[in-house]
Amino acid sequence: MKKIEVGILGATGMVGQRFVSLLEHHPWFEIAWLAASERSAGKTYAEACNWRVRDPMPRAVRDFPVHECKPGKAPQLVFSSLDSKVAGEVEKEFARTGHVVVSNSSNHRMDADVPLLIPEVNPDHLTLVRTQRKERGWKGMIITNPNCTTIGLVMSLAPLEKTFGLEKVLMTSMQAVSGAGYPGVPTLDILGNVIPHIAGEEEKVERETLKLLGKLSGGQVKPGDFVVSAHCNRVPVEDGHTESISVALRTKATVEDLIAAWRKFRSRPQELQLPSAPKHPIIVKDEPDRPQPKFDIHAENGMAAVVGRVRPCPVLQFKYTALSHNTIRGAAGAALLNAELMKAEGYLD
Ligand SMILES: NC(=O)c1ccc[n+]([C@@H]2O[C@H](COP(=O)([O-])OP(=O)(O)OC[C@H]3O[C@@H](n4cnc5c(N)ncnc54)[C@H](OP(=O)(O)O)[C@@H]3O)[C@@H](O)[C@H]2O)c1
Predict the structure, then answer these.
(1) Exposure of 66 by Cβ count < 10 A (0-12 exposed, 13-18 middle, 19+ buried)?
(2) pLDDT per position as a tens digit, 238-262
(3) Quick check: pTM over 0.90?
């Protein structure tokens, strides 16, 4: 199969670098075009980018020119990891001029006609792009993945909602510094410290969770019928967001029932054997002190949600810990899986 050429908007940032790294040996997609701010435009990728991924920068892109974020010469399919200060308008301009924009940025996630997608959770929401194109008169489209904190939470909630129904969800996060982009949180603010505030994050987690677990009906998403409360904290961890979660369910269940629901959870990406799909989307750890970012973020190449410490909760009903890799499953890997689902379902033809 001839590979599909792709572009990356915001290629020099933390998430953009992850895209470059994950796309290096991708069986379906190959990088043909990179773009970032006017500070980087005109330089080569190696000159413009302060490479922070552990694997070396792929040789093939070192001498690629970095372009301004303007449509025209970009391939039809573009991944976006743009700063949210500019993503809103730039992504709309690309979609209007015929590009398929698979975005990480928060700007369009809650637009009623934009799919907010986790392929294992709500693959049917992809059909929203039909309304989007019709109503906006666009030749292209915008598809988004959730916030990096939302994704681990929702992957762990999806089998519980499906099997038992959800009534209440309470989540406290311990979020890695890489979630704040580069250079991110100043060292003197975060070393030996916990910052109990991440601007806008709690609101995003609460809103996005209800859209992701909402039902599609008549071309619209009806938000999930449960309440979510999020506390978000920044901690001195490099990669991986850890979450303490309590839930109240609508039907009776045991700890063993929850574990069984997670362990047997498989969905569309696994059926379609998409290249980036984890074989086991949810991994349940039995050890009493896991998951931990140090040991567990690379499970299934960083694409799984890892859960553990499941036990009764005297306030709600059950409590557990969840972990996911914020720049892979929470960002670039999530968008890549979205694009793979679109390809497999004929949305890129
Ligand atoms: N980090 C995470 O874990 C994570 C997870 C999920 C979603 N996200 C979202 O993904 C996006 C990128 O996050 P990040 O962590 O990669 O941020 P980042 O490291 O700050 O990178 C931002 C990117 O946007 C480009 N940019 C900034 N201002 C621009 C402008 N005026 N015009 C064009 N390009 C501009 C930058 O280019 P220059 O290098 O040229 O400045 C860089 O490539 C954000 O919207 C973020 O909320 C991040």
Answers:
(1) buried
(2) 999 999 999 999 999 999 999 999 9
(3) yes
